[in-house]
Amino acid sequence: MRKLSRQQRGRLADPSTYAAMDAAVADGEARFGPQISAVFAEIKALQAGRQMDDLTGAEMLRFMALKAEWDGLANQQKHFAEAALALRLRPDGGSELVDA
User: Fold this and answer.
1) What Å distances lie between residue 40 and 25, 50, 66, CA to CA?
2) How far apart are alpha carbons 95 and 62 in whole angstroms?
3) Closest CA to 82 of 32, 13, 8, 9
4) For the whole model, what pTM was predicted?
5) Residue 35 carries which DSSP code?
6) Which of 35, 56, 36 is nearest to 46 (CA)?
7) d(CA 99, CA 2)
8) How far apart are CA 62 and CA 67, in angstroms?
């Protein structure tokens, strides 16, 4: 029998909190996932199997702009999921949680 990880023990000890966390992450992925995927696809197309050193000046600038956009979207997704989790964990159950 394998030893349970800390996260697995936490899930067993407090399943409702972990269910709320999973739902909040899923909400964030649903809201920001398509945008993040589009930016990531553009980054991959720009690289096209090349090393970073092989990018020209204009390509490197575009890469840096895309990376900044990706970082911003990932940060927004994180904050959105945190807010959704806070609403779900409210004593009233976040019953008025609506899609913004």
Assistant:
1) 19, 15, 8
2) 43
3) 32
4) 0.76
5) H
6) 56
7) 40
8) 8
How far lies 15's CA from each of 9, 12, 22, 57, 82, in Å? 10, 6, 10, 50, 18
7, 40, 66 from 44: Cα distances, Å: 32, 6, 10
- Answer yes or no: is pLDDT of 100 > 70: no
Backbone angles phi and psi of 97, in degrees to 5: -65, 120
**Tokens 């994180």, located at residue:** 78
First to last CA, the chain: 45
List pLDDT tens digits, range 59-88: 999 999 999 999 999 999 999 999 999 988
Answer with the residue of higher pLDDT: 98 or 38: 38
Distances (CA, A) of 16 to 63, 81, 89, 90: 41, 16, 9, 12
Residue 69 in tokens: 């956009």
